[in-house]
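User: Hi! I'm working on a homework problem where we have to compare a predicted structure to a textbook description. Could you give me the structure for the chain below?
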Amino acid sequence: MTTIYFILAFLFLAVIGLGVAFFVLARQIGILYERIAPMGALVNESGPKVGEQSPRFALANLTGEPVHVGTPTDRATLVFFLSPTCPVCKKLLPILRSVRDSEGDWMRIVLASDGDEAKHQRFINHAKLHDFPYVVSTELGLGYRVARLPYAVLIDRNGRIRGKGLVNSREQLESLFNAHDMGIGSIQGYLDASQSSSAQG
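Assistant: Happy to help. Predicted structure tokens:
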């Protein structure tokens, strides 16, 4: 009987030890997650701010009918600024197709750039972008103060800017949609505010 009691006591202590270890591990995972939380789109503070009404543009479309940006529509609009010479932009094209297929019920994607139209026509043909609205407009980039590429601006169906920023990955692109759904300016701003609140608490 003494041996049985010893074994039961050992198992009881082992269970308690495992429980404590699990709690410590879970806490460390939480701390690690906060430290490596995904970076949202890198917001450029110049130009129209998130929450403001977008400038309105009526633009020629190299792949179809004219495109209106910033005016009320039945869907939100993601304006994706790219360049035929930007390797990161080209890397994101398959991701844009995937996003369009999964989010197309509430959002349309407009590709935008500036420069020589003939060069862009060759890019459209080479990258098979005929199924995207594609506009070439210096005024559009200036209107949103686009300084670096790839850059994206998310405009809701009422013509209000809901997110914007430099996007180098699918995670940064989708952070604009998450910010839109959460009703916040940007994921990075939300994370920074949360960390500040935790530090003050």
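For your comparison, note the following. The chain is about 45% helix and 15% strand. The beta strands are 57-59, 67-69, 76-81, 107-113, 134-136, 151-155, 161-166. Good luck with the assignment!
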